[in-house]
Amino acid sequence: MFKKVLVPLDGSELSESALTHVSDIITDCNAADVVLMRIKEPLDPNVIGTLDAKVAVELDEAYRDEAARYLDKVVETLKEKGITAKTEVLSGNPAEEIIKYSQKNDIDLIIMSTRGRSGLSRLVFGSVAEKVIRNSTVPVLIKPPREHSS
């Protein structure tokens, strides 16, 4: 049974499509906890070097505020469906932070979407979802970029 479910979101409609599975999982598994997560990737070191330290801190705070507001809106949308959730805003490499958080917080299931890249695009940009799947110690449910009709 899945009692704690983690849903990483990046602010895109695509990432939010993973939420379509949350209601079913919560109902079917009597899951008690849903965690919505947003992760800020570190600024490029070359960019940081051009910024005043105060500006860098202000940028980080502005991102965290925006991320918290975004997640709060998603929480409200879920609440309308009878689902309660808590939020986490973290900084770092998205795949690493998702895995680390899931291990430290006894997450039973990670639900996320994938962009569906293949070929050269996938090699160049990588895939957070793929890295999570390969390195997670808990099950990962992936929502493809679009539902395929049979």
What would your notes on this structure say?
The chain is an alpha/beta fold and 150 residues long. Helices cover 47% and strands 19% of the residues. It has a 5-stranded parallel sheet with strand order 3-2-1-4-5, with helices on both faces. It has a single domain, classed as Rossmann fold (3-Layer(aba) Sandwich). The protein contains 7 helices and 5 strands, in the order E-H-H-E-H-H-E-H-E-H-H-E. Helix 5 runs parallel beside helix 7.
- Give the SSE order as H and E letters: EHHEHHEHEHHE
Give the class-level CATH name: Alpha Beta
What fold name stands as the CATH topology? Rossmann fold
Which overall shape is indicated by the principal axes computed on the Cα atoms?
A: globular
Rg, alpha carbons: 16 Å
Q: Helix/strand-derived class?
A: alpha/beta
List the strand order in the largest sheet.
3-2-1-4-5
Overall helicity: 40-55%
Average pLDDT for all residues: 83
Topology:
Elements: E1 4-8, H1 13-16, H2 22-29, E2 33-40, H3 45-48, H4 53-80, E3 86-91, H5 94-104, E4 109-113, H6 119-125, H7 128-135, E5 140-143
Parallel strand pairs: 1-2, 1-4, 2-3, 4-5
Helix pairs in contact: 5-7
